[in-house]
């Protein structure tokens, strides 16, 4: 089998179809080379080798690929007309990771590999640029030291050990910028860096380029199992056995003087989706300078540059002189780049995110990939590409990441509240949305408050977890393509970057803007769409779901055959879900209706009553409240199906556990405090999730089932009188035997007949059941003989199939995920292998005795895209999920059907 794939000079061994083997980056490089894009030549070591490395170790892998790697290096040498490790005509290379999906900043990269004390002299000689050669060398030691040799800060208060050495030298020399270092300074730095490596690792910095190469390749393989990558993988549900490829490529330099440069560009706006070529570049710089946000990058296009200057409040004269666009500064290069971006977007038929370098007037395209984008941009781009005829309707629907729609469904700042708010500073609108929260300065403290805003000078991949927890991210440095900006957009998280006016002091934990001091814990609000930084807490409003969003959703519905219902417990939720396109209610958890203050009292009286008579009296109080809710819900759904579930949770959830409340209750019920206390302890259970809950309640206290049935049917009758026909679906929870179902069904039907007789009118209704105990799934054929419908409660079914307590899984699941014992959280993503079997078997067996049995799902999985796909494959009639996930499920249902 082939383990090393070459590319360059308009030919390649691989192509874009080999993403799993070559990684996204490697497949793209091969493809680009094939279609005539000038990529620096190189080769890709496959993802399979990463897996082999994990199994067999370094020695075995080197043996396997040594010959191929040597041949591939020779190929690069020929194309670049230079030699690896040669002092007089050196070839330098980069080594990068590349998994099958893009994981920005997650994995490590080494640039300038091949330099040593001899080669640096040759490079200086060849380029006639001694400064550049030594600068590259010190950058190489710095990167290689960090990535391969583990030279990282020792604690979060420390800075990078190499940066520390540089800071010292700057102080000593009384200079501020890296560019002010003299050649001698750079030489001193190289010496000091190597010394630091020797001191900390006990080994000399490797001088043989081949040793350097193998070290870097193994470091990339190792980084696949590094903390950052593992966290990112778990967050996205990517399995560990994908592995990463390694891309080795000839270096080209953007820091060879003023006719060199480097940049990042997008074929469309990644924030808004607007069809406008845009991006940023720096003259005389290397790629990491743009991403690290140390210098302020300039815009690629003239129009982009003008827009940027307006936001940054820079006058046109100053802009044109100090920050000219690439279009103005290097028109020929710009035209060439413009041509390639067009070619690449048409070739890949999606918005591209490209990196390029200009080396002494020659343009090289380093990489292109489908660009990360916000939810809003994703929808607009899909719609635009469709209208432009570049993609089909199916492709437009498929191009939307269902989970990303979430961003569009959440609130934005209330324009009225915004008017009276005080904007204290402005940064770049790096990732849209609105965020309000309390200031934290360290990523690992993001969970200190319920809502936090992470405020950093700049972010690094180590901050990922905290960025995910924070409501918004604010950085003082960095452009639109800085780490913070790219990662935040990927997460759909509000981010304002590059707010230069902020003075952040990590030690004092303060943020100073214009002389005003903010502290950790102070409220701050960010508008990621404008870049505004606002003092205090700002109210938010619901988003607008018309326009392109509505059109894409309409398109999705055209393809899907499975319905999407919602889980809603109140008329308000039902209305929200309707506006999101829910086609009915799949689950009303009636117990949630009792949590309000005035209701919980009546509920408690019911629970504490010792006699049936006492219980019935308390239930009488509850009846009108429930009926009123059901009426509201039925009305909101306007004749669409509504499934109402009878009381499910363990009763002790409702009893008062605090002394004061117990006293109140005792007084109100005219019983002693002791009586209340003893009842509370009587209801205490060792394992409430498997205890006295579900239909077990209705069976022991049939009067509860009677009251609930009455409330549901009276509500339906009341609506019928007002001209709204509803067919309530009454659902019995947590059954495991047919007899349990029969018991409750009898109570329901008897009560129904009573109600119909009293009212002299009837409504149609169904009696069905949850399938959430494995035994119920196994006996589905018998149950379906009685039940009108099934709804899979995959929360409980997962709990009981795995034997993981829903309430306690949080203690060990993170460890399971970290160690790879589970690939994903089964409470989030339906476990097809195990739980899924029960779902399929339950559906099949159910339909074997009742051919047209209506089957749905109402566990959390009903709103999770891959689970929705599974439900579609299982042949369910509908999925049901929380209101805000309805559009996501609609889209996932359409994608499953395409
Ligand atoms: C379930 O178990 O999946 C379900 C929907 O019910 P609950 O979460 O209320 O137990
Ligand atoms: Mg359940």
Describe, in plain words, how this protein is organized in 3D.
The protein is α/β, with parallel strands linked by helices and 898 residues long. 46% of the residues lie in helices and 17% in strands. An 8-stranded mixed β-sheet has the order 15-25-24-17-18-19-20-16. An 8-stranded parallel beta barrel has the order 27-28-29-30-31-32-33-34, surrounded by 7 helices. A 6-stranded antiparallel β-sheet has the order 2-1-3-8-6-7, sandwiched between helices. A hairpin with a 2-residue loop joins strand 12 (352-359) and strand 13. Helix 6 (161-173) packs antiparallel against helix 7 (183-201) and helix 15 (375-387) crosses helix 21. The protein is elongated and about 100 Å long. Bound molecules: phosphoenolpyruvate and magnesium ion (MG). Substrate binds at residues 589, 645, 772, 793-796. Mg(2+) binds at residues 772, 796. InterPro entries: ATP_grasp_subdomain_1, PEP-util_enz_mobile_dom, PEP_util_AS, PEP_util_C, PEP_util_CS, Phosphohistidine_dom_sf, PPDK_AMP/ATP-bd, Pyruvate_phosphate_dikinase.
Fraction of residues in helix: 40-55%
CATH C-level of the domain at 560-650 and 685-897 = Alpha Beta
Using only C-alpha atoms, the radius of gyration works out to 32 Å
Ligand species: phosphoenolpyruvate, magnesium ion
Q: Kindly report the name of the CATH homologous superfamily of the domain at 560-650 and 685-897.
A: Phosphoenolpyruvate-binding domains
How many H/I helical runs?
36
Low-confidence stretches: none
What form results from the Cα inertia axes?
A: elongated
**Structural class, from secondary structure content?**
alpha/beta
* Mean model confidence by pLDDT: 91
**What topology, given as strand order, has the largest sheet?**
15-25-24-17-18-19-20-16
CATH architecture label name of the domain at 560-650 and 685-897 = Alpha-Beta Barrel
In total, the number of strands is 34
Largest sheet: 8 strands, mixed
Estimated share of beta-strand residues: 15-25%
| Ends apart, CA distance between termini | 34 Å
Family: Belongs to the PEP-utilizing enzyme family.
Enzyme class: transferase
Binding site for substrate: 589, 645, 772, 793-796
Active site: 483, 858
């Amino acid at each position: 089998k082939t383990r090393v794939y070459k590319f360059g000079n308009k030919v390649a061994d691989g192509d874009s179809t080999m993403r799993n083997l070559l990684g996204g980056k490697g497949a793209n490089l091969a493809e680009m080379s094939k279609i005539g894009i000038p990529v620096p030549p190189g080769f890709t070591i496959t993802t399979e080798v990463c897996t082999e490395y994990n199994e067999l170790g370094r020695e075995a892998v080197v043996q396997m690929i040594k010959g191929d790697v040597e041949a591939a290096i020779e190929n690069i040498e020929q194309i670049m007309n230079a030699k690896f490790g040669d002092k007089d005509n050196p070839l330098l290379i980069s080594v990068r990771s590349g998994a099958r999906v893009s994981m920005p900043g997650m994995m490590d990269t080494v640039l300038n590999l091949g330099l040593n004390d001899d080669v640096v002299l040759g490079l200086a000689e060849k380029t006639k640029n001694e400064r550049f050669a030594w600068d590259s060398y010190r950058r190489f030691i710095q990167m290689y030291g960090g990535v391969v040799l583990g030279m990282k800060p020792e604690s979060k208060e420390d800075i990078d050990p190499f940066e520390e050495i540089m800071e010292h030298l700057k102080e000593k020399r009384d200079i501020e910028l890296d560019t002010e270092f003299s050649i001698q300074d750079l030489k001193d730095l190289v010496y000091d860096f190597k010394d630091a490596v020797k001191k900390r690792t006990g080994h000399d910095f490797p001088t043989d380029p081949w040793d350097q190469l193998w070290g870097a390749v193994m470091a990339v393989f190792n980084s696949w199992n590094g903390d950052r990558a593992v966290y990112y993988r778990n967050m996205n549900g990517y399995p560990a056995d994908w592995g990463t490829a390694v891309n080795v490529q000839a270096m080209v330099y953007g820091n060879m003087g003023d006719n060199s440069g480097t940049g990042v560009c997008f074929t469309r706006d990644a924030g808004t989706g607007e069809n406008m070529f845009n991006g940023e570049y720096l003259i005389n710089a290397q790629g990491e300078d743009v991403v690290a946000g140390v210098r302020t990058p300039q815009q690629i296009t003239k129009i982009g540059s003008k827009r940027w200057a307006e936001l940054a409040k820079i006058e046109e004269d100053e802009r044109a002189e100090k920050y000219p666009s690439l279009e103005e500064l290097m028109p020929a290069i710009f035209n060439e780049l413009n041509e390639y971006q067009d070619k690449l977007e048409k070739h890949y038929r999606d918005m591209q995110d490209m990196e390029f370098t200009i080396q002494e007037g020659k343009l090289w395209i380093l990489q292109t990939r489908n660009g990360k984008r916000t939810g809003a941009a994703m929808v607009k781009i899909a719609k635009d590409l469709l209208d432009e005829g570049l993609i089909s309707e199916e492709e437009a629907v498929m191009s939307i990441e269902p989970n990303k729609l979430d961003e569009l469904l959440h609130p934005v700042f209330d324009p009225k509240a915004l008017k009276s708010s005080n904007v204290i500073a402005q940064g770049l609108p790096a990732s849209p949305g609105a965020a309000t929260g309390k200031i934290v300065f360290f990523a690992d403290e993001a969970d200190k408050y319920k809502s936090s805003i992470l405020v950093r000078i700049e972010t690094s991949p180590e901050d990922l977890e905290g960025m995910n927890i924070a409501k918004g991210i604010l950085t003082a440095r960095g452009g639109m393509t800085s780490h913070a900006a790219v990662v935040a957009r990927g997460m759909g998280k509000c981010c304002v970057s590059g707010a230069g006016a902020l003075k952040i002091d990590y030690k004092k934990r303060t943020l100073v803007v214009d002389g005003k001091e903010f502290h950790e814990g102070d409220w701050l609000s960010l508008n990621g769409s404008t870049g505004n930084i606002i003092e205090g807490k700002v109210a938010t409003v619901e988003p607008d779901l018309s326009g392109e969003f509505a059109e894409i959703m309409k398109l999705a519905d055209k393809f899907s055959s499975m319905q999407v219902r919602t889980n809603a417990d109140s008329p308000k939720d039902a209305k929200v879900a309707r506006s999101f396109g829910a086609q009915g209610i799949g689950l009303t958890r009636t117990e949630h209706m009792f949590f309000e203050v005035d209701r919980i009292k009546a509920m408690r009286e019911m629970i504490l009553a010792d006699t049936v008579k006492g219980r019935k009296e308390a239930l009488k109080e509850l009846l009108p409240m429930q009926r009123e809710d059901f009426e509201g819900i039925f009305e909101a759904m306007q004749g669409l199906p509504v499934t109402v579930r009878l009381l499910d949770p363990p009763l002790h959830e409702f009893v008062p556990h605090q002394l004061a409340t117990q006293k109140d209750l005792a007084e109100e019920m005219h019983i002693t405090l002791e009586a209340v206390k003893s009842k509370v302890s009587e209801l205490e259970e060792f394992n409430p999730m498997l205890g006295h809950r579900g239909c077990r309640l209705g069976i022991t206290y049939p009067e509860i089932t009677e009251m609930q049935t009455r409330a549901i049917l009276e509500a339906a009758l009341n609506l019928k009188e007002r001209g709204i026909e509803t067919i309530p679906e009454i659902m019995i929870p947590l059954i495991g035997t047919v007899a349990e179902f029969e018991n409750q069904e009898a109570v329901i039907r008897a009560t129904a007949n009573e109600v119909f007789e009293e009212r002299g009118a009837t409504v149609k209704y169904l009696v069905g059941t949850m399938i959430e105990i494995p035994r119920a799934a196994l006996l589905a054929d018998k149950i379906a003989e009685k039940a009108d419908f099934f709804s899979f409660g995959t929360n409980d079914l997962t709990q009981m199939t795995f034997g993981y307590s829903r309430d306690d899984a949080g203690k060990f699941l993170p460890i399971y995920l970290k160690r790879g014992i589970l690939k994903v959280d089964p409470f989030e993503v339906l476990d097809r292998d195990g739980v899924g079997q029960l779902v399929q078997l339950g559906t099949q067996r159910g339909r074997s005795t009742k051919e047209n049995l209506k089957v749905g799902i109402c566990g959390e999985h009903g709103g999770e895209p891959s689970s929705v796909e599974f439900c579609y494959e299982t042949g369910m009639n509908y999925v049901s999920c929380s209101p805000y996930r309805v559009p996501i499920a609609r889209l996932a249902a359409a994608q499953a059907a395409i």
